[in-house]
Structures are given as C-alpha cells and as structure tokens.
Amino acid sequence: MSATVINGKELAKKLRADIRERVNQFIEETKVVPHLVVILVGDNPASVSYVTGKQKACEETNMKSTLIKLPVETTEEELIKIINDLNADKSVHGILVQLPLPKHIDEQKIINTICVEKDVDGFSPINVGKMILNEECFLPCTPAGIIKMIKETGIEIAGKHAVVIGRSNIVGKPVSQLLLQENATVTICHSRTKDLKYHTLQADILVVAIGKPKFVTKDMIKPGAVVIDVGVNRVDNKLCGDVDYEGALEVASYVTPVPGGVGPMTITMLMENTLEAAKRLTR
Ligand code: NAP
Known about the structure:
Helix content is 43%, strand content 16%. By secondary structure, the chain is an alpha/beta fold. The protein has two domains: 30-115, Rossmann fold (3-Layer(aba) Sandwich); 141-263, Rossmann fold (3-Layer(aba) Sandwich). The strands form three sheets. A six-stranded parallel β-sheet has the order 1-11-8-7-5-6, sandwiched between helices. Strand 2, helix 2 (45-60) and strand 3 (64-70) form a beta-alpha-beta unit. Helix 6 crosses helix 10. The protein starts with a strand and ends with a helix. The relative contact order is 0.17.
C-alpha cells in the first residue's frame, strides 16, 4: 500500500483564502480590523520562526498583527502588566504568548492572565473547561487543526478507534477530547504505557505527539491506518516528525508530512480564532 499524503500546506492555503474573505466582509460591515498581538520573550530560534509564521498568516488573511518582543530577562510582573494592558485595549482581539517562556516565568500564571475573550490559543482554564463541556469556546489550535484536517480529507472519525500518543495540555489531552467529541473510541498513551506497539496496532487513526524523531516505525502501524504526525524535530538541520514517514507511507492509508502537515493547520486555526474573537468583541 502507498498512503495518500495529506497536504496540510495546500489545505491551509485554501482555508486561509476563505478566512480572508470573511475578514474582508467583517471589516466592511464593522470598520474593525481583527488584531492579533503576539508576545515573544527572548529569542529562541524555533519560537522566532513560529512567530514569523503567525505574522505571515495574519498578512495572508488581512488581519492586523503586532509583535511585542521582550528581552529574556523580562520579569513575570512586567509580562503580567503588559498582558493586562492588552486585555483592556479595545483595539486588540487576540493575545498570544509564545511558549515556552524562560524558566523564571510561571507559564500557567501568564496563560491565566490573558482574558478568556482574547485567549485565541485556547489554553486558559475556562476555555479548556468549556471545550470539555462542548460549549462555545476557543479550541486549542493544533488539536482543532488536526480534526479539521481529518474531516476536510473526507475521513470519517465516528466509530473509529483513535490512539493518541502524548498527553500534553496543548496537544495530547485536547486532541483526545476532540476525537471523543467526534465519536471516536479513544486510547491515550504516554511514557508509562506498557507495550505501546500493542495499542498503536489497534489504531484506525493514530495521532503522534511525543517530540522524538521517527519514534513510530512502520511495524507499529495498523495497515490502512490514518497517521497524523504532530512532532516537529530538527535532525541534522532538517525538520522531521515523530513518525518514520517513509515507513508509514508503505502501510498507512493516509499520512501527514513534516513539515507541511499539522503545522500550517495550527496557524490557520489561530487565524480562525482571531476572527471569531474580533466578532465576539465587536458584537
Ligand atoms: P510534550 O509536552 O513534551 O509531551 C510529550 C508527550 O509524549 C508526553 O505526554 C510524554 O509522556 C509522551 N512521551 C514521551 N516519550 C514517550 C514514549 N517513549 N512513549 C510514549 N509516550 C511518550 O510535547 P508536546 O508539546 O505535546 O509536543 C509534542 C511534539 O509536537 C513536539 O515535537 C512539538 O514540537 C510538536 N508540536 C507541534 C505542533 C504543530 O503545530 N505542528 C504544535 C505543538 C507541538 P509523559 O506525559 O508520560 O511524560
């Protein structure tokens, strides 16, 4: 079998064109330009590249973006003050603090400071709680992008056995929850899971979010499975995922590449959330 590659880059381009149209319509009706503020503390190269991608996506979708670059020695109090000012600023609709933050800053405290109406990353406890209750909220971008990608490809989720490797707050846990809401039967695996291969071989849909290059090999994939590779790893100065891509192509029915798979979908969902935030705050 040779799997179909799910082209996240192409899909994201199509979705962003649609968002741009809706942004233009919103601007025409309200004279308000959706505005995302991204805060970057320090100059971690991966973070700088993610932030650049977010700014480009704002341009592509005709939204305003502002980057606040802060030195690595910025204190927690200074960062909180900046976020509180942005919370009060009516011209700002979305606030995103690029993670990870330097060790001396408590990430959860910072996330909790962003007001829920502007939490376009969907990481605040209120948004997370609403997501679990299936109430209107901002869905976290990577999990939302994964679900969108699977659906847009025409793959049925309901009734499938989805296995997620990874239980982080930003990917593993929320994507498991969203798959459950789509009526999949969900198994969550992590570093303490015994006989991981036993579980992965049961997966009709396998979502891998570990952060270990080429960790999932073809002998761990059920023939015909849909493989969603969330991992972003740099090996010999080249990006690769958590799945052995070439091996997966041989056994799976669908595979996402790295780069060009989940990544562009994540940023697209951020644009969707920012437009939604602007709409809700302009009502
Ligand atoms: P994380 O917070 O480090 O979590 C990794 C998870 O993998 C943990 O739950 C850990 O289990 C589990 N794990 C580690 N080793 C394992 C093993 N040997 N067997 C089974 N499970 C294992 O990472 P993350 O933030 O979720 O990110 C995961 C990857 O996705 C990274 O490469 C990251 O760069 C990438 N990512 C990509 C995007 C995108 O848009 N493309 C967005 C976010 C993240 P324990 O909980 O037991 O420690």
